[in-house]
Design a protein that fits this description.
FAD/NAD(P)-binding domain, globular, about 425 residues, 21 strands, binds flavin-adenine dinucleotide, alpha+beta, Alpha-Beta Plaits, 2 domains, 11 helices
Length: about 425
């Protein structure tokens, strides 16, 4: 049986960053991903752009980056490869360049990759995970490690290891809506005036039942290519992203909504009359599903009071952006200029497993708090912290909950990360 120091499951922003940071510290690391590329939701859900990961100094007006360290390196290298431009608010990027870049960075860090491989189980010895069971084209096998990182977005590994978790909103377990993103090419022009006309007609059509999509408006982003627009506008509510039948229904409903929108735009707006539907996400996007019950659960109150913690390992100020889990509407709480909150290391530590860390959108947070920290730049910073912490736990022969916090924060800061 193969054995590694660290196994990372899931190659989204959290998993890629975790593997790179652990690999750079000299440990043997295996990154397991069920698809054929890294980037996670950015690639298979077509999620774009990077939401704002900086604030502005209220006095000097100077930009203060919040997701730094490895995320800054990814953004800079993307720009250098022509895969992103300079950003004003959000940062659009080319996911094909991202896939190439993340392969390069992972390999440079000495990390082994296993693509097209599904983790289907774990073996535990008491509170310690001993190995993961994997399934791929070679068949089923097992891989041992001393420490594991769950970066699956859905906390799949933590669930297999019987760690406690919660699903969605506290009172009814409903999660934020699922969305199938898509792109239209051959759009003649797009500006704020057209946006207003589209939304006015959309509301009219919705009111008389000609549009079934429950989303309150049409959410469109520009891409790096002038005549290609990105749509993050389908909305499937009240289905469980961790239930296979529900996810299948969601995929079918969302694809109907894609065609509804495409037809609506082509038939009513000359700018779209010759547009082509060039792509939809390989799977419907999941904003929220399971969150582990960790040593600390980040709350809305922590966010509103811009909390700091002794064990802060990342910071964020993305708005509390809640797409209604049961219908129309999106609520926002925007942080004032210069303000942001910190995320403690304890949110990454699940109960019931002493050599497992969790990173990305499934860390320990309430529904409201997850609505802010879930963005890709923050997931990368959480992954980077998990990778360093996993290495420290091995170097000091300690449980992940006993990692030396001062040392963890020092290494992150030396790598350029902003931890508080
Ligand atoms: C519709 C939508 C729009 C969004 N819009 C934005 C936006 O505009 N900007 C922004 O910054 N963020 C946005 N987000 C949020 C952001 O995309 C995600 O929260 C973030 O990408 C999550 O990163 P992650 O690394 O935690 O998980 P993921 O990116 O989901 O990565 C998890 C990885 O684990 C793999 N995996 C899962 N289970 C297994 C298994 N058992 N075995 C092997 N591999 C496994 C998956 O294949 C995947 O690659 C959006 C999300 C959605 C769904």
């Amino acid at each position: 049986m193969k054995k590694y120091d660290i196994v990372v499951v899931g190659g989204g922003f959290a998993g890629a960053a975790a593997a790179i940071s652990a690999g750079r510290l000299g440990k043997s690391v295996l990154l397991i991903e069920k698809y054929n590329c890294l980037g996670g939701a950015a690639c298979y859900d077509l999620v774009n752009p990077f939401m704002p990961y900086f604030t502005t100094d209220p006095v000097s007006g100077e930009r203060i980056d919040l997701s730094c360290g490895l995320f800054t390196e990814i953004a800079d290298r993307l720009r250098a490869l022509g895969g992103a431009k300079n950003d004003k608010r959000s940062l659009p990027f080319n996911e094909e360049v991202l896939k190439y870049l993340l392969n390069t960075m992972v390999i440079e860090s000495g990390v082994d990759l296993l693509y097209q491989t599904y983790v289907i189980g774990v073996k535990k010895n008491g509170e310690r995970i001993k190995s993961v069971c994997i399934s791929n084209v070679s068949g089923n096998s097992e891989i041992e490690a001393d420490c594991f990182i769950d970066a699956t977005g859905d906390a799949n590994l933590a669930v297999m290891a019987r760690c406690p978790y919660k699903l969605g909103r506290e009172d009814d377990n409903l999660c934020q809506p699922m969305t199938l993103c898509f792109r239209l090419a051959g759009v003649k022009s797009y500006d704020s005036e057209l946006k207003a006309r589209i939304n006015a007609l959309y509301s009219e059509y919705q009111a008389c039942g000609k549009i079934k999509n429950p989303r309150e408006n049409v959410l469109i982003f520009r891409t790096l290519v002038d005549d290609i627009l990105h749509f993050n506008t389908t909305r499937v509510v009240k289905l469980d992203p961790t239930n296979a039948e529900d996810v299948t229904r969601a995929e079918i409903i969302a694809r109907e909504q894609v065609f509804e929108m495409y037809t609506f735009l082509r038939e009513n707006f000359v700018e779209f009359s010759e547009s082509t539907l060039i792509s939809t996400g390989m799977q419907i996007g999941v904003r929220e599903s399971r969150m582990i019950e960790g040593e600390y659960t980040l709350t809305k109150e922590d966010l509103l009071s811009c909390s700091r913690f002794d064990d802060s390992i990342a910071v964020c100020n993305y708005d509390i952006d809640i797409h209604s889990p049961d219908g129309s509407g999106t609520s926002h709480y925007y942080f004032p200029k210069g303000e942001y909150y910190a995320i403690p290391y304890r949110c990454l530590i699940p109960k019931n497993a002493e050599n497992l860390l969790v990173a990305g959108r499934c860390v320990s947070a309430t529904h409201d708090a997850q609505a802010s920290l879930r963005i890709m730049p923050t997931c990368a910073t959480l992954g980077e912290a998990a990778g360093v912490a996993a290495v420290l736990s091995l170097l000091n022969n300690a449980r992940v909950r006993d990692v030396d916090i001062a040392q963890l924060r020092e290494i992150l800061k030396n790598n350029g990360a902003k931890v508080d």
